[in-house]
Design a protein that fits this description.
homodimer, alpha+beta, three-stranded antiparallel sheet, three-stranded mixed sheet, DNA-binding
Chain lengths: 138, 138
DNA sequence: AGTTAAATTAGAATTATTCTAAATTAGAAC
DNA sequence: GTTCTAATTTAGAATAATTCTAATTTAACT
């Protein structure tokens, strides 16, 4: 049983997430999930849709990305002020962030060990994000 | 020899950072560094300055914060899209992020163990940020 | 005091994102 | 297949954080 590609196609995936399979959601799901793990911004997805002749407004891109995050089909990654990345890899993992290029790269969670986690003074731990910031060699 | 409070006053601190000790920079350094460890936004600092009757424009707040980051007097922490926090604690450490309130809390680096760090495919590791995201208990 | 480069400023510009209200569409009911 | 209704999409305006610009002020040197 693999965690990868849990749905045969976009339609099934939207059904399972209880999102109406509209033209734009189907098209965006395909763009997002049929190319392996990606880290994409709203603007980039909008451009990809345009390139694929899928007419979809930027507002819908944002709506859809947030709905997908809510449905746990995507994860939002924040590494840069003023710009969100959406990660199609929803497995537990971490990131390299390359400061020069602004690119992200996954690090599977078994490649880093984070131990000795302190308990928060209140509330519950929802997630632990590790970002390794990488700069060009001095 | 402690790493804490390395300068007796704002003037010394600016001199060491090779920043001209102007009225605004002196006042902002005092606001930032004379109250222990803090996580503050540009807007908040602007409000504090106003409350202390220090006339300083928002542009200067931003300029100064970034200069301080460049001089390693501050660290920028990104946990939220579209808003930067500036951290007066420049020692190696990590953060709790409370999603309900938007507040940050320091975790000294000796309270978490991050081991087995993978090497990046190119470049050098500049920093490792661990953010523990905390939500109200379900 | 006079000079000059650095710093500050108000306000405009930019960027990412969200909101609004109108038009379209998916899916259920007939 | 039409009709109906609520959900979705949309263009464009609005917002929020930040950066830029060009003019003014100031720190520090002579």
């Amino acid at each position: 049983m693999s965690n990868h590609r849990p749905f045969a196609n976009a339609l099934e995936l939207l059904r399972a997430a209880k999102l109406r399979p509209t033209r734009q959601r189907l098209a965006l799901a395909k763009l997002l999930f049929e190319k392996g793990d990606r880290h994409i911004t709203a603007e980039q997805l909008h451009d990809e849709a345009a390139a694929a002749s899928i007419p979809v407004s930027l507002a819908t891109i944002y709506n859809t990305l947030h709905q997908f995050v809510g449905a746990r089909l995507l994860r939002e990654v924040v590494v840069n002020p003023g710009r969100s990345y959406f990660d199609t890899n929803i497995a537990d993992h971490h990131h390299f962030f390359f400061e020069e290029s602004g690119k992200l790269m996954d690090i599977p969670s078994d490649k880093i060990e984070v131990t000795n986690l302190p308990q928060p003074p209140h509330g519950a731990i929802r997630r632990v994000d590790v970002v390794i910031r990488v700069a060009p060699k001095g």
